[in-house]
Amino acid sequence: MNNMDIMLLVLIALLIILHIHFCYRALTSHAKIDAYKRYIWGVLSLFMGPLGYYLYQNQLPLDFDD
Prior knowledge:
With 66 residues, the chain is mostly helical.
């Protein structure tokens, strides 16, 4: 294995960790949504990473409870 192969494996591992992190953030969010929508948000975050997380977060209604 040369340096390029090692670097590629490290980057893939970091990308997987990033996707898992955003899935975890979606599943443990304090947003007031039902479990089904929360799991959809988590799955999108897992497969699409930050893009899926923020795209779905943009679709959530704003909470203006003061």
